[in-house]
Design goal:
With 253 residues, the protein is of the alpha+beta class. It is built from four helices and eleven strands, in the order αββββββββββαααβ. Helix 3 (205-218) packs antiparallel against helix 4.
């Protein structure tokens, strides 16, 4: 009887001792891309005028945010600029990756939302999508009927949100770069948690955040720490408690 009681007593302790691989999630940022004419912009507060939306005292409710890492680099020589440039970029192994953004309350009443993707040779696609009526985190997946991203090429993406139906200048704007890398050996894992860790260790930002966001929607308590750490890495831990919305679907223009 004594041994049975002892064995029962240690079971909760063993459960507590078992930690998720995500508890120690660390993203390994790869080297930045070569200097680009357009380094990118991670967040935009709608300096060209917010749409007709209820006012808010929160700064995060005023900024469109791209969930992607940034790096400040010294301005190129002979550019005449003294301040460093903020470069916005990330890697993926997915042929049709998913992009993640925070939509502020001041943009929920916008009339037009456009997403564009182009490479440095001859590919360019423009898309539109319907915005949700509430602020939150949204995702945009490149449609599977689009040409897959070519390994090794840099693609420039941009998200523009317009308050008017006949837009000229976007009211909100973010942009950056993405590159698909092709591994000789595919990353395999027995669990979603381990897959996320492998992606993060190999610097695959878009795959890391997509897998973690999808898992976070299913098991928010188990992934709370990892989700907070990932958003803190890109400087937006203030959005940790923000809901992930079931939005959006890109439609070719």
């Amino acid at each position: 009887m004594t041994n049975q009681l002892f064995n029962l007593a240690i079971i909760p302790l063993l459960i507590i001792a078992q930690k998720s691989p995500l508890d120690a999630l660390i993203f390994n940022q790869p080297p930045p891309p070569p200097d680009k004419d357009t380094p990118g912009q991670q967040a935009d507060s709608g300096t060209r005028g917010p749409c007709d939306a209820p006012p808010s005292d929160s700064e995060t409710d005023k900024q469109l945010v791209a969930f992607i890492p940034t790096l400040e680099k010294p301005a190129p020589e002979n550019s005449g600029l003294s301040l460093p440039e903020t470069h916005v970029w990330g890697l993926t192994q997915n042929q049709h990756p998913t992009f993640w953004f925070y939509l502020p309350a001041t943009a929920t009443s916008a009339q037009v939302a456009q997403f564009s993707l182009e490479n440095e040779t001859n590919y360019q696609s423009n898309f539109q999508f319907n915005l949700p009526q509430t602020p939150g985190i949204i995702s945009l997946t490149l449609p599977t009927n689009e040409p897959p991203l070519e390994p090794g090429q840099w693609y420039y993406w941009s998200l523009k949100i317009y308050c008017e139906t006949q837009p000229s200048t976007p009211n909100f704007f973010v942009d950056g770069w993405i590159q698909r890398v092709q591994n000789e050996t595919p990353f395999n894992s027995d669990t979603p948690q381990n897959k996320i860790v492998i992606y993060a260790q190999n610097g695959l930002w878009f795959d890391t955040i997509t897998e973690l966001a999808n898992l976070h929607r299913q098991t928010p308590q188990e992934t709370e720490t990892a989700w907070a750490n990932l958003l803190e890495y890109i400087g937006w831990e203030s959005l940790t408690e923000t809901p992930i919305l079931p939005c959006c679907t890109l439609e070719k223009q």
